[in-house]
Amino acid sequence: MLAWKDGQPYSERYGDVYFSSDSGLEETRHVFLQGNDLVQRFAALGAGDSFCIAETGFGTGLNFLCAWQLFEAHAPQGASLDFFSVELFPLGDEELRAALALWPALGRYAEAMLAFWRRRVPGWNRWSFAGGRVRLTLAMEDVAQALPQLPERCVDAWFLDGFSPAKNPEMWGDGVLSAIARASHGGTTLATYTSAGWVRRGLQQAGFTVQRVPGYGRKREMVRGQFLASAPASRGGATSRNVLVIGGGLAGCAVARALAQRGIQVTLLERSPQLASAASGNPRGILHARFGAGMNALHRFVLAAYGHALALLDEVSPVDGKYRAECGLLQLAGTEEEAKRIVRLAAQEWPPHLLQTVDAKQAGHLAGLPMAHGGLWFPAGGWVVPPEVCARLAGHPDIELRLESEVTSLQRTASGWRVGGEGFAFDAEQVVVCCAHQAKALAPFAGWPLQPVRGQISLLPSTPESERLKTVLCVDGYCAPAVAGVHVAGATSSFDDDALDIRAADHAVNLGRIDAHMPSLYRALGGAAPVSGRAGVRCSVPGATPLAGKVEEGLYCSLAHGTRGLLTAGLAAEVVAAQMCGQLPPLPQELLDALSPSQRLRNKGK
Ligand code: SAM
Predict the structure, then answer these.
(1) Is the pLDDT score of 164 beyond 60?
(2) 513 C-alpha to center of ligand 1: Å?
(3) Are 367 and 238 in contact (CB under 8 A)?
(4) Are the CB atoms for 419 and 410 separated by under 8 Å?
């Protein structure tokens, strides 16, 4: 809980202020921005370069906002900023709003951050600002857990900003300092407001030179330092300025946008006459974060992807009731298996804006119809129109769309890759394959365990009674509130089936689930037959964790999103784009490894 002392944010947990009571803003500028020579270093960047700042202690985000403002003022167009920070005790929405209201000069930046703040999830968060020019990666976990997950030699400048070393020693301990050293390279600098002797000695031991210089306000001294190593930064490197992306579903459109935002010219090849013609083509898709209490790598990825997807959709498809609704989603304990999973999940601590446990009565109140079961309530859940999301993702001036261009061959050449199909051939240094199980037809993906999974949805006519449904309901299937007289219910799963016919038996499965687990809705629907349906084929892999990242030199993929593409395509695209551009990844190394095609397939002995 944030407290206030003399008009300044104060932590009762640590007994310390978040920043100098003279002026937090001026302190940030003096200690962290000047202490790392950021004006000069930003100005010296070239177009296409990226600069990485890492911070210990995000707090109110003041340092981040100041760094962003300075970057905007001094870095050339085409350069980008990665800002990484950690925070174990994130402020609440209103606390953060109140703390940032102290700085009217940062109003525009603060508003942008506050808009994403309500999308925060435990673990790593990745949000892009200013058209992708500034990326924030915020690890909401203990510093000791987060820092060792950074790539080696990726950070250019450190802001060491824990509470005072006497009150918050775990932010300044040897383990943290050696993780800082591991993520530093020959040109890395650091700055901190403290000149405590044991911190200085710790920094020296970790490999930094340490210089005492005048501090800000009442602080006589602060410390700046430089990492003593010759090894260069692990990041950077030449990215080709033209990239081919194969596949115009959510995965491909999201990759195309993530690359275009990094200043890359993208050619997006789609075999159909329009985007989102396969699994991403349903008239409505639900935002459903399904994870398990064990929080394995897949669950942690889905959690991070959920927060990322909500923030990305806020940009490309804001809530408007037509293309997106944030009506909330109830995951009901309708089966024994679901009930067990929900009990285990509910036993963990969750921020209420993310998920809450509800009983049957509360569920009925939220849903607008009586519910037989309680379960989990996801206030930010809802639905979107996936083809519209695809169109908006791909609607970037640096994305050239080539429809009706089915890629049938992908071959290595002396300088990169040749992509060919009927009547066309393109050469590119870098290619990203995002065409689901059809990738198997391309030589480098032959034999990959990509499985087609047919799914059919049912469009059900609403009745005055069923129009009372206010939220998405999920058990083993789902049903969304009516829009223009139609509910969307789904979806079936038939493995190794890629047929697109509409089957009465599949409609019966969708309706049967509503009957079994959402009886009041079933009655409200009044037994009318579905008005129509749609079948799509998604792509899955054993274990269900998508594949995202490098396959081999110049070849990348984002594949196997299964039923979760709406959530996972955006974050997978950030993984791929960051890797291609040599920038800070949006996820901890453990999760990058879990997504990595080369590691996964190598482990399987492919
Ligand atoms: N840089 C911040 C700003 O611009 O407002 C001020 C940071 S404040 C002095 C220190 C922050 O470190 C607090 O928000 C605190 O919750 C966080 N913190 C303390 N111990 C931590 C730990 N072990 N892991 C992660 N964060 C921690």
Answers:
(1) yes
(2) 47
(3) no
(4) yes
User: Over the Cα atoms of the chain, what is R_g?
Assistant: 25
The rounded Cα 100 to chain-centroid distance in angstroms is: 24
| Residue among 62, 109, 161 whose CB has most ligand 1 atoms within 8 A, to mutate | 161
Distance CA 518, CA 465 (A): 14
DSSP-derived 3-state class of residue 9: strand
pTM: 0.97
Query: Of 119, 13, 94, 102, nearest to 65 (Cα)?
Result: 102
Residue 606's pLDDT band (cuts 50, 70, 90): very low
| Sign of the four-CA dihedral 232, 239, 578, 132 | positive
Per-residue buried b or exposed e for 229-242, using 16+ beta carbons within 10 Å of the residue's own CB: eeeebebbeebeeb
What's the token pair of residue 150? 């950074």
Continuous segment of H or E residues that includes residue 98:
helix 93-100
- Ligand 1 site residues, Cβ closer than 6 angstroms: 18-19, 55, 57-63, 86-89, 142-143, 161-163, 168, 170-171
Tokens of 569: 């395509």
- pLDDT per residue as tens digits for the range 267-278: 999 999 999 988
Q: Whose CA is nearest to atom 14 of ligand 1?
A: 59
- Ramachandran class of 429: left when φ > 0, alpha when ψ lies in -120 to 50, beta otherwise: alpha
